[in-house]
Amino acid sequence: SGKDSKKNDYGSGADKISIPPTLLFTALGVVEDVSRAVTLDFKADGDLIYVLGDTRDECGASEYYNLLGATGNRVPEVDTKVSKRTFEALHKAMTLGFVASCHDISDGGLGVALAECAIAGDLGARVELGSVPGAESVERNDLLLFSESQGRFVVTVNPSLAGRFELLFAGLPCSKAGVVTAHPILQLLDKGSAAEICSLSVEQMRKAWKKPIDW
User: Using an 8 Å Cβ cutoff, are 41 and 121 in contact?
Assistant: First the structure.
């Protein structure tokens, strides 16, 4: 279908932009009821933020390490059994209408996923890194924020539905890590002391997100 490209170049005058050779797999699914489709944007002040899937010290070949000029040895490993059960539980939660928003955690890790959700919804969030699944085995805040461990999601849930949502994930890596706020600030708290380590406005994050293409 033309999605495996060995040459990805863009030229404008003397400028040339190239990305590495790319092989892209596309998966499609049928949404029986389009009203149940879930988008990434934070929806409402007071919605609870859950992180699904374990975060591990797996920054090897990540966007974060690339930014630092490093490669790293610990690349993400996929736990297919746990991931499959997590995906099935998430699908059921969406089908039942328990999920207000959902975003995968991929390039850039949890930090980027939270920023994208806040930017899309023009809402803020207060997130405790110590409450992220797997936090106890990750030594530093930056690794928790930018690890690209697989099979993870940021999900928001109305507080009235939290109990029923949590029942679907019994025995799976799922924890309440924060809350959506009306004030458009992403506030991150230290995994150990719960002291604030970062506070960024949605406008700051939006400018950074748009900068690569804002010529």
Answer: yes
